[in-house]
Amino acid sequence: MEAGYVPALAALAGSAIGALASFATTWLNQASQARATQRAQDRARRELLYGDFIREASRLFVDAFQHELEDPAKLVQLYAIVSMLRLFGQPRTLREAEKVMNRIGATYFEPNKELRLFADITSAGELDPLYAFSQACRDELLGRRP
What we know:
This protein is mainly alpha-helical and about 150 residues long. The protein has helices spanning about 5-65, 75-90, 90-110, 115-120, 130-140.
């Protein structure tokens, strides 16, 4: 092999290695960004879902506090949200949501209560069925394990 070919081959090999390194770096960077975007979208979806559940469960709990269950269709939206939680939520969050759902159902079949009693809800008291669910959601969204 002539002496002139060695520098040319070395230059070509160096260029190929540089291009490969650049390609690998770009690919890894884009893959990392895609994962971060996916995590952010997943978190936003769960935040909306948990907020929907809290709003619907709160509305139904107040209704159950004062009324009997005359129309079971009232519970359809809550059941739909819980089913969505089964798709996206962590097991602890789902367990707490199911407890809330069961508590609301049981409250509908208890004797009606006066509205003034509802005002006595404390952060973790007997009348706050969403406390444990809210804690589970917070832990999940912050990445804490139970």
